Amino acid sequence: MKTKFLKLSLLTLFIFTASCSSDDDNKEIPAVVTTKVSNLDATSTTAFTKFSFSENKVVTGDNWDIAFSSTTILVNGGTKKADAEPVRTGSGAVSIVSGTFASVTTFPLATTFVQDAAASYAIPTGSGNGWYNYSNTIISPIAGKVFVVKTHDGKYAKFEILSYYKDAPATPDATSVGRYYTFNYAYQANSTTTF
């Protein structure tokens, strides 16, 4: 009798424990989606176009993550280098990773992230050392450079620049209209460390 009671008690305890899962166990972490931004206007030489990854749009407030003007790209963290730049109000930083966009699936080490500074930008400008090559008046994004961004509010995104020209022509030429960025990005809103 005691054995049957013990078995029945253990079975009841097992069923009770198995059925008491929290709602958090059933929540799936949403997949990270790659988004393409086309023709982001960076034509102004006196102001920067500010972009928010979490909102997927150009913004005017302090909630920006990256900002564009001509070939200069800023992050919302660090200090200003020039007067025309927006004030950095966030904790943004960037780590430049070599590889394809799809192959960058984990966040780089924290020590590899850099903020803008008075002497240099986190995303360098200039042909060859920056994000692009300049040849025969054409600016071409360097293949295999992926930018992992710590956003202004401590989340993460990765992006790759596809084109610097309006409508992203496959082969830009002297008639192509410049300072219009096309890029892919993926935004990680959760506390996980993967894309």
UniProtKB/TrEMBL annotation:
Keywords: Signal. InterPro entries: HmuY. Residues 1-23 form the signal peptide. The keyword Signal applies. Coiled coil: none annotated. Pfam families: HmuY. This is HmuY family protein. The lineage of its organism: Bacteria, Pseudomonadati, Bacteroidota, Flavobacteriia, Flavobacteriales.
